[in-house]
Amino acid sequence: MGKSGESWCLVLSGGGAKGVYHIGVWRALRELGIEVEAFFGSSIGAIIAGFLAQGSDEKLEELGRSITVDSILALPAELTENGEVKLDRESLSAVRELFHSLMANKGLDTSPLRKILSVGIDEKTIRASGRDLGIVTVNVTDLEPREVLLEDMEEGKLADYLMASAAFPGFEQPVIAGKKYVDGGLHDNIPYAMARRRGYRHVIVSDISGAGRNRKPEIAGSVTAYIRNSIDMGGVLDFDRGFLDSFTLLGWLDTMRTFGRIEGYSYFLVPDPEAERAFAQAVADAGEPLPEFPERMRWDRKLLLKSLECAASILEVERIKLYSYGELTASILGRLAIEKARVSKLLTEGKLGKLGIVAMLRQAIAKRSFEGCPYYYWRLAEEALHDTTEAVILKGLVALYPELPAGLDWMARQA
User: CA 133, 138, 141: angle at the middle one, nearest 5?
Assistant: First the structure.
């Protein structure tokens, strides 16, 4: 049952390959020294919950570093390349073969995932650990959802229940006691309510924006830390190695920010009170009015943090990275030099002309589709236009990117 002390229950949502985010979250929780006594999950969240209840941190980390689509599905070799699905003309015959196999087995073959569980999950160890474990699945034979606790699972059936929770639509359906099961996300992709019914009041949720039924948590009467991916990226079957590594890191960053170890809105910064004091003093000494900040930042007293965030945003500086104030400043200035050179080159070549630039800017604003960063378009308007057209376009850019005034103000102060 839930305790009144410092132990927590961790709830892990479904989301396929994006489940690597949970690994980053767990890595951060360990660094923070947060004790977790219970694990509830749906779909990939259920599988990760099983590893965590077992205490197999290293196995889980290794799985996150090595997982590919071949780790989940048995696909013809012609359909995979570097651990990802490959579809081209050469693979058409393999697609037909896969379709026939799918029809015969009534779903994609998930035997590689079952092998991972049979090797990596020790049911006896989990039962002996004293940790609480719960999963969500759907019994399609009887058309009813099931929220299953470890103590209610038949001996030797834990791996079957984990597979049942992660049986994504289109995958083969695991059978337990003659009943077929599908993905738990179809009933509750974030089993927060299940954890609360179990009696837990200190709950951490890791939400990876997976497809399924994402119920709004009723947090009244609890201490709930809600961690959600702050950047939307990747899909449930996206096994690109770069994405997986970045999304794992994002889990760590979002968790550290949630628990106050790092700061930021769109970026992740190590707190620097001394830099904040020095910047605030420099602004006061200059006696110049402050720019308008986006609504979400308006009341924040960390002036330098807000300014750096706005400058980085309009230059589209890399986000999934932990920065010191100095490192983010250097990255901003580096991008600024690149964008200035880009604007200068376009204007010097004179290929577009004033009318061409006006047409390009208006089209980009109307469609909200930009091939460059906001700063690039702002500088084009400032350099190439000098009439009422400029004012209209600049106003349109600010409406789309409210970070522009504060970001430009910070850049002007660096001159």
Answer: 135
